[in-house]
Design brief:
alpha+beta, Immunoglobulin-like, 33 strands, about 40% helix, about 20% strand, binds tryptophan, binds zinc ion
């Protein structure tokens, strides 16, 4: 409410009514007469033009328009003013890493008291404040949005209006007392009207919070930045019947009943934390309880909270949690530090999950699983994300980020830790393949587009937009490179030193780098470039063998492509793991490498060295292996030792050889992918020139030998016979052609299916199981292989194969097999497809998580003209634009079909454009994720470019656009 006063602070109402704003009865909005632009229009035509010029908000033309902004002087409204109006008040502002300043004041303790209600929630906060520099007289600036200020006291004395300043986003004490003081602030918020799902909101009738990155400022006025770390207590008061469970961080220290059917609970968190880790949950929940005894003997109570009917579906999450706790002790020596660990599952959540201290809050799709309702992929995701959030307790919570630019300090590191955890629980190679595929399909395109940013961004408008695959996945690759360079023990030494130095602190990426370096006395050259340079480096390798000198040379050159704001790049430090195969396919023992004028021994006395890590640091550089007695085939970038695009001079024969023999299983898969990428690109060229398509028999043979190799891991086989994604291929083209790429991928799939039909059929036959569902690697691998074969067979539009898939559908005893059969069937339009989809819905209509799979499957369909079907599904009774999971399934799913989203007639773009504007009014974070689908529009042909650009421009000219969507849309157009 307060923020509505800003524009007219010098004219009407001014600040007189700050305390008067509190009113329980809804009062009509009064628009004062200073200036009024009809309706909800927020930007003047002039501004819209500036925005279309894609000027950045901090530039002067944009600012100049502030004066022309509409002024609303509102006394009170019901509900609170929405975000629609928020951006009317302040121009989006870009924030820069280089502007970081230490806070002038620190907070020591924070006591929060919540009185939760149906119409309003009162938040009372009491903070002990002290200046960073004794005797400082700097103003104290608190962040706060979407709340009514009720009262403010300093050292017990109520402040009068002249003692502070309130604008749409801040509460400023101009001259706070010198030295330590207490600050008490009472505010009113309306969680029941909060559809943004940040701050305090309601999900299925329960109260919950999401404070990262900057949601705490929607709960109470505070220095909402991670370098403010304080000890919290939290008292929650609520109706006892409606909200029997009251949770917050730390330990429960008091609870009791109150008059009027209410009760309360008091929680105390003994650890200092930034406010983004604060959490509160209140509602009708029940728990699965278990215990974990840490290796030092601390008994920890574990509780996973859900609505009563879902408690049976939390067994796998509990198993995952205990496995994660044990793993962190075994691998990193890290123990849990409290006596209680709570996990709460909520159906409405913008992201996957949140690591709030001792009270993790999860999107329910990442907690709830039963064999009948969740697929193997869901089980694996739950394991990984439960691990991820738990691991944050040390990497994120005990040691946190100084500012949000350092996000990868906790996220890259924690993703790396959860990847390692999942590897150790399943198959290392298969996990690595999955992670690298994700990087290639999602992060590479981001790094090559208008939203490209370094692992540590230099600036942002809305921090939420920087929870990206670059910060997370590329950030994890950066952490992995330390381990590749230092080895397991060296990496562990670095981690130990990091915790020893920084426990309880808010630090930077350099601090992590320094710990790794100092613990090992390591020379990391220009490794820090990985944090500051965006763009995927392209590494070219040429090889030559000298039969007389018995040397083998690898010449490297590297190039980092230009990205927005970074046109010239420095060379990077690229660790390249290499092995050399002899003609029988075995690794040659390596003795020494000549490089930079010196001969370095790589041999060890204890065992032959079969692989080594080359340190590529220059633009051009040569490494010469000595004592190589036959022409080797090099296996380069083993295990994908750096996040680069590798271009080598290996021939197809070399690649087939590596596919068959490489001891590095990752590179066996990779060789197959390189071959497939080459093949697909050349067929795309044929398709574009209307040449007939034919499939290279050697490729079919290569895949056949993998498919029939019983010595291989079954999930490895499934991955090795899966073609690179359409996005990956489009990403490699001069002008992306979704129709050609789709036609080619479909052609190869069908051709493989028909040529290897009997092999695929026996693969299905031999990998059925009538046994009970087990979540372990051998069983998941078996199902993955069987279902990959089934999908191939389903691509053959013949009735025999449809019958087979239908049979699999009917006899399936778990969701993995059932959904795989449904997907196989739904590749081809027709009555069978319609009937089975209808049957599936009828069966699962009461399970919203399964219904989301049903939405996604239809949305992702490549059947031409599917946009109409998706539009119909928007009106399906099970759909709801306010629930992020449903949006991700239906809208996100649709954008995942290149042929339909990029339909030539622009129907896909138009659809997304309309949805983004609707969504933005409800939930800017989710709208912003959706609008990102437009960001690579320049990669397409001119007519598609025109159509996509039109949609982006329409979005940009909309009234009251959120900063979230503004940032993505404007940068996309820039
Ligand atoms: N820190 C969370 C993680 O573990 C990410 C997250 C959850 C988040 N909810 C959010 C980030 C909302 C931004 C906004 O990765
Ligand atoms: Zn995280």
């Amino acid at each position: 409410m307060a923020r509505l006063i800003l524009p007219c602070k010098s004219s009407c109402l001014a600040r007189t009514s700050l305390l008067g704003l509190i009113s329980s009865a809804p009062v009509k909005r009064s628009v004062c007469s200073v200036k009024s632009i009809s309706g909800y229009r927020c930007f003047s035509a002039l501004e819209a033009t500036h925005r279309r010029n894609y000027r950045f908000p901090h530039s002067s033309p944009y600012r100049a328009t502030e004066a022309s902004r509409r002024v609303i002087c509102s006394v009170a409204t019901e509900p609170f003013p929405k975000r629609v109006e928020e951006s009317e008040m302040d121009a989006p502002k870009e924030i820069f890493l280089k502007d970081y300043k230490s806070p002038d004041y620190y907070f020591d303790t924070v006591d929060l008291r919540f009185s939760l209600g149906e119409e309003k929630t009162i938040v009372a906060s009491k903070i002990t404040v002290f200046p960073r520099v004794e005797g400082s007289s700097a103003p104290l600036v608190l962040n706060g949005v979407d709340q009514k200020l009720i009262s403010i006291k300093v050292d017990g004395k109520e402040l009068k209006e002249g003692d502070y300043h309130l604008d749409s986003r801040h509460l400023t004490l101009q001259s706070p007392p010198q030295g330590k003081f207490t600050l008490e602030i009472d505010t009113e918020i309306q969680p029941q009207n909060n559809t943004s799902l940040e701050g305090l909101y309601k999900s299925s009738g329960n109260f919950c919070t999401q404070c990262e990155a900057e949601g705490f400022r929607k709960i109470t006025f505070y220095q909402d930045r991670p370098d403010i770390m304080a000890k919290y207590t939290c008292r929650i008061e609520a109706d006892k019947l409606l909200y029997p469970v009251l949770l917050s961080n730390g330990n429960l220290i008091e609870q009791g009943t109150l008059e009027g059917g209410k009760h309360y609970a008091v929680w105390e968190d003994p650890f200092k934390k930034p406010c983004y880790l604060f959490a509160l949950v209140a509602g009708q929940l029940e728990s699965r309880d278990d215990t974990f005894v840490t290796r030092s003997g601390r008994k920890v109570a574990l509780r996973i909270w859900t609505p009563a009917e879902d408690v049976p579906k939390t067994a796998h999450a509990m198993y995952s949690l205990k496995a994660a706790m044990k793993w962190d002790e075994d691998v990193f020596g890290l123990e849990y530090d409290l006596d209680l660990f709570n996990v709460v599952a909520v159906p409405d959540f913008n992201m996957g999950a949140m690591e709030n201290k001792s009270l993790n809050i999860f999107n329910s799709k990442l907690v709830l699983a039963s064999p009948e309702t969740a697929s193997d992929a869901d089980y694996a995701a739950i394991l990984g994300v439960i691990g991820h959030e738990y691991f944050h307790n040390w990497t994120g919570n005990r040691v946190t980020c100084r500012d949000w630019f350092q996000l990868s300090l906790k996220e890259g590191l924690t993703v790396f830790r959860d990847q390692e955890f999942s590897s150790d629980m399943g198959s290392r190679t298969v996990k690595r393949i999955a992670d690298v595929s994700k990087l290639r399909n999602y992060q590479f395109p981001q790094d090559a587009g208008p939203m490209a940013h370094p692992v540590r961004p230099h600036s942002y408008i809305k921090m939420d937009n920087f929870y990206t695959v670059t910060v997370y996945e590329k950030g994890a690759e950066v952490v992995r490179m330390y381990k590749t360079l230092l080895g397991t023990q060296g990496f562990r030494k670095g981690m130990d030193l990091y915790f020893k130095r920084h426990d309880g602190q808010a630090v930077t990426c350099e601090d992590f780098f320094a710990a790794m370096k100092d613990a090992n006395g390591a020379d990391f050259a220009n490794f820090l470039q990985w944090y500051s340079q965006a763009g995927t480096p392209v590494v070219k390798v040429t090889s030559s063998y000298n039969a007389e000198a018995h040397t083998f040379s690898l010449k490297f050159s590297q190039e980092v492509p230009p990205t927005p704001g970074q046109l010239v790049k420095e060379p990077m430090f690229i660790p390249v793991a290499v092995g050399l195969l002899d003609s029988s396919g075995k690794d040659m023992p390596l003795s020494s490498v000549y490089h930079d004028g010196t001969l370095q021994s790589v041999a060890s006395i204890s065992q032959p060295v079969l692989s080594t890590v080359l340190r590529v640091t220059k633009k051009e550089e040569e490494f010469v292996f000595c004592d190589i007695f036959e022409r080797p085939i090099p296996s380069l970038l083993r295990g994908y030792s750096a996040p680069v695009r590798l271009e080598s001079d290996l021939s197809d024969n070399d690649l087939f050889f590596l596919l068959a023999h490489d001891s590095d299983e990752f590179n066996r898969w990779e060789s197959g992918q390189v071959l497939a990428r080459k093949l697909m690109l050349s067929l795309v060229a044929d398709f574009q020139q209307s040449k007939p398509l034919t499939l290279n028999p050697k490729f079919v043979q290569g895949l056949k030998s993998i498919l029939c190799d019983t010595s291989l891991d079954k999930e490895f086989i499934a991955k090795a016979i899966t073609l690179p994604g359409e996005g990956e291929i489009m990403d490699m083209m001069e002008v992306a052609d979704p129709d050609a790429v789709h036609a080619v991928r479909t052609f190869i799939r069908k051709e493989l299916a028909s040529q290897l039909k009997s092999e695929f059929l026996s693969t299905v036959e031999n990998n059925r199981s009538s046994e009970e569902y087990v979540f372990d690697h051998p069983n998941m691998a078996r199902r993955a292989l069987k279902n990959t074969a089934l999908a191939y067979l389903g691509s053959l539009e013949d009735s025999e194969m449809t019958e087979l898939a239908l049979h699999e559908y009917k006899t399936a005893t778990n969701m993995t097999d059932q959904f795989a059969a449904l997907s196989a069937i739904s590749q081809n339009p027709g009555k069978t497809r319609d009937d089975v989809l209808a049957d599936f819905y009828t069966k699962w209509q009461h399970n919203y998580l399964v219904v989301n799979k049903w939405f996604a499957l239809q949305a992702m369909s490549n059947i031409p003209g599917n946009v109409e079907n998706v539009r119909k599904l928007l009106n399906h009774p099970a759909f709801d634009l306010r629930n992020p999971n449903k949006v991700y399934s239906l809208i996100g799913g649709f954008c995942g079909s290149p042929v339909n989203f990029h339909a030539k007639d622009g129907s896909g773009y138009k659809f997304l454009g309309e949805i983004v504007l609707q969504l933005d009014k409800l939930n800017p974070q989710v709208a912003s994720r959706m609008v990102s689908a437009f960001s690579r529009w320049r990669r397409f042909d001119e007519s598609r470019q025109t159509l996509a650009k039109q949609q982006l421009e329409t979005i940009m000219s909309a009234n009251g656009l959120s900063e979230n969507v503004f940032e993505i849309a404007s940068k996309s157009l820039a």
